[in-house]
Write a sequence for this structure.
């Protein structure tokens, strides 16, 4: 993930104690921010320990296209807690996630949806053993097509799905 170093450097300028909380789906972030939908680049998500303030860095082709701060407007506490991610925890990268998806029924989906622009999310939710990648069709950004453990490549459930 060459883009990570670019994003991390900018996040450290924002806050020297920032921690990496993963990657947010590009299409969802573009919609939320009201920016032109290009579907390119990675929205790296950073935070601060003990604070809900988030910092997003959009990196496209190793160039920062923009940054923004965001903070959830909470009536109740969030039903999840994001854990910091260390780059050393990521042994499976996005191209491998796509290959795993294709090998697990995704090839048929992609053939029947030839114009789909897939989107990725990477998070480590407290209570899960490792960070997880999720792959999305931007038409349905709430339902992952597949989720993959970023360390072991095992198929996992949606990290945000409520546990039974």
């Amino acid at each position: 993930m060459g883009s990570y170093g670019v994003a991390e450097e900018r996040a450290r300028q924002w806050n020297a104690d920032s921690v990496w909380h993963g990657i947010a789906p590009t299409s969802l972030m573009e919609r939320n921010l009201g920016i032109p939908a290009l579907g390119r680049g990675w929205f790296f998500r950073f935070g601060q320990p003990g604070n809900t303030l988030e910092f997003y860095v959009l990196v496209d082709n190793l160039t920062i296209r923009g940054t923004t701060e965001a903070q959830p407007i909470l009536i109740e506490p969030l039903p999840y807690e994001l854990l910091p991610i260390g780059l050393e925890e990521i042994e499976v990268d996005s191209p491998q996630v796509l290959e795993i998806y294709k090998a697990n029924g995704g090839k048929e989906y992609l053939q029947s949806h030839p114009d789909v622009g897939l989107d990725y999310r990477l998070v480590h939710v407290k209570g899960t053993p490792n960070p997880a990648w999720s792959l999305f069709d931007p038409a349905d950004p709430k339902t992952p097509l597949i989720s993959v453990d970023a360390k072991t490549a095992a198929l996992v459930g949606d990290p945000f799905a409520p546990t039974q």
